[in-house]
User: Fold these one by one.
Assistant:
Number 1:
Amino acid sequence: MRNKMLIAGLLLPFGASPALAQAAAAPAGPSLITQLLFFLPLILIFYFLLIRPQQQRAKKHTEMIAAIKRGDTVVTSGGLIGKVNKVNDGEISLDLAENVRVRVIKAMIIEVRNKAEPVPAND
């Protein structure tokens, strides 16, 4: 008891009360379940608003690229509009004007304007 009074007496000039001189229990932090309940809705919101729509757009673009055939009118990412003349594995040959042909990488096609009727393969 004497030691407590001595410690309290030493701490009083520094603005501490005798009650603060005693060892206080550490405050308990939020539990793991509480933290998960906070972050789970946040993760779900990010998934449904950002990740899932991007995956769907990429899937549609891949399907569109795979369905390109000779005679389709397409738009490239550079803004060129042309008619598909020849389709290879990774490239497409476009007719931009009379006697003007350009080779374009398939992934650079951003839109298929109108689907034409199939044209006989390579005259």
Number 2:
Amino acid sequence: MGTGKGPFRRLVKRLTSDVDQLDADDLSEHVEAVGARKACDCQSGEQVTVLGRLRSVELSPRDAVATLEAELFDGTEGVTLVWLGRRRIPGIEPGRTIKAQGRIAMRDGRKVLYNPYYELQTAT
């Protein structure tokens, strides 16, 4: 018996898996292909490069300190991207794929990158 990575096994998986799971698997494979790290493997304090799709983008209320927060999902886990002093950034919108670099921190039990360097990715 093979390792389970043959073409027939992949076809059966694609035909029987949930669409969200297939999308997560594709994102996870793309992360490794471009040399980024999976979010699930990142630890607090590490300098990392992550790649994923923005699930949500939230603007701070008008009366609060200006911040823009976006949840990046790479197929394994989410990372919150926080830009301090910004209310909008052109191109940062839900559904967009980006590569972000920075130092992982923890906030309320979630992984966060503050003021990350980022690159907008073209559709694949």
